[in-house]
Amino acid sequence: MTTDAAGVGKAVPGPAVRARPSLGSRIAERLSGGLVRAVLIVVGLFWLMPTIGLLVSSLRSPEDMSADGWWNVFAQPSRLTLDSYQKLLENGDITGSLVNTALITVPATVLVVVIGALAGYAFAWMEFPGRDWWFLTVVSLLVVPVQVALIPIAELFGKVGLFGSIFGVVLFHVGFGLPFAVFLLRNFFAEIPRELLEAARLDGAGELRLFARVVLPLGGPAVASLGIFQFLWVWNDMLVALVFSDSGSQPITVALQTQVRQFGNNIDVLAPGAFLSMVIPLAVFFAFQRQFVSGVMAGAVK
Q: Can you name the residues that pair with 2 across neighbouring β-strands?
């Protein structure tokens, strides 16, 4: 306590007391050390080990693969060859299935993103009768498993002539991908400030222009994450393609499953085919993983 010129007592602040860090912060600080990072690196290497093994196996001859393990190639790297990939390109079933996979995956991804974005904007910012009930209906479709709809939709496709066609497989993927797309994008678009949309409307922007010029650019992370998620799901799918495709429309997953039945005779085709089937979605995910994580986290929590 000190006294100023007017004789009024004034309290002198003492030393600041530093708050004790919480248990969670102390644990997080300890886990951010170099030991934990080293452990995570080792776990990541083990996670990539099957991919590395498949890549090395695709570059070996059938005789070498039958003689020893793929890890022995590091002692003799000169034994690596591209003959298996050359033989793969000469296999009409595998190359045709890769084309079918692209013809199925690209339209199924684009349609889900476009329709889901339009519907998500409508549910978020447009007023129409029964909007909330329609949205609850769409959300309730998320709990419907794919296996339940296989037989009824197969019968329907058989009656309308879509069974065994690429368009039928695309249509099935679009139908089951839209509920999640609408749910994700609606929650993301609903977080856009209303004042921003009202300002655009005052400037004369219509709904379509407002969606294209304001909402869609702001929702880029969510749209990108949805596209990646849909691409990975459709590219890696085998159940739907196994049911609804035939020999002329089967994707790479079904073609490889068919080739596995003759595993001993075509291992030199299976290895490069499986690696190409895996590396494409893996490259897409790693290229856009930042947008994928940010979009999912932002759109799933309102």
A: 10
Taking CA atoms, 114 is separated from 3, 125, 177, 268, in Å, by 73, 17, 12, 40
* pLDDT tens-digit profile, the chain (302 residues): 555 555 555 555 555 555 566 665 666 666 666 677 888 888 888 888 888 888 888 888 777 777 777 777 777 777 788 888 888 888 778 888 889 999 999 999 999 999 999 998 889 888 888 888 998 898 888 888 888 888 889 899 889 988 888 999 999 999 999 999 999 888 888 888 888 888 888 877 777 888 888 888 888 888 888 888 899 899 988 888 888 888 788 888 888 887 776 655 667 778 888 888 888 888 887 777 776 666 555 544 44
Can you list the domains of the chain with their CATH numbers? 25-81 (no CATH), 86-300 (1.10.3720.10)
118 in Cβ contact with 236 (< 8 Å): no
User: Measured between alpha carbons, how far is 261 from 243 in angstroms, rounded to an integer?
Assistant: 18
Q: Give the predicted TM-score (pTM) of the model.
A: 0.76
Enumerate the β-bridge partners of residue 63: none
Q: Around 84, how many Cα atoms within 13 Å sit in the side-chain half-sphere?
A: 27
Distance, CA of 194 to CA of 182 (rounded, Å): 20
